Amino acid sequence: xxxxxxxxxxxxxxxxxxxxxxxxxxxxxxxxxxxxxxxxxxxxxxxxxxxxxxxxxxxxxxxxxxxxxxxxxxxxxxxxxxxxxxxxxxxxxxxxxxxxxxxxxxxxxxxxxxxxxxxxxxxxxxxxxxxxxxxxxxxxxxxxxxxxxxxxxxxxxxxxxxxxxxxxxxxxxxxxxxxxxxxxxxxxxxxxxxxxxxxxxxxxxxxxxxxxxxxxxxxxxxxxxxxx
Length: 228
Description:
Blueprint: H1 2-13, H2 17-50, H3 56-67, H4 71-82, H5 97-134, H6 138-148, H7 150-166, H8 169-175, H9 185-195, H10 198-227
Helix pairs in contact: 1-10, 2-5, 2-7, 3-5, 4-5, 4-8, 5-6, 5-7, 5-8, 7-10, 9-10
């Protein structure tokens, strides 16, 4: 175990080519999927948190169900859609980073929506009253609401990024964990550990834990700022 740990540290310090490739694919997938999820989820979350209309409760239940959707179910759905017998097979996205991004977006967008809806529903009534007293229109009121949600938006993005970088089920099914192409940190840890290559698995695990720790520190700081 000690030897494997020493080799893992050596791989990190030497900037091993395979390790860097896995980190690059992971960064591309996680950053792209979390950004798309943010752009889709923030407006929908603010809308659900601020507006009251028939059917809102049903939409909230559906979104909360999607927040807990098992990654393997999401992976199965996308595999069926884009496989050789699926309706979207002509797009030839299976076993590419692009379909991994799409699967991740489907998984983490509900998280962004739920996070924003919960926060906005708590501040929207008082903010609406303030905006009404100032004589602000709908557009300026929405802008004011977005400004008040700035830290919550950043927190939602970090949560989405953390979920994306740590997910394994869906990306392994649609990406195939192909070396030098679609292998990300989580799938590579499983793959190389099964092969007995503990040093690379430990190196990736150390990096993944470090990233998760950093993200959680930032989220904790944002949550303290929000609670003031």
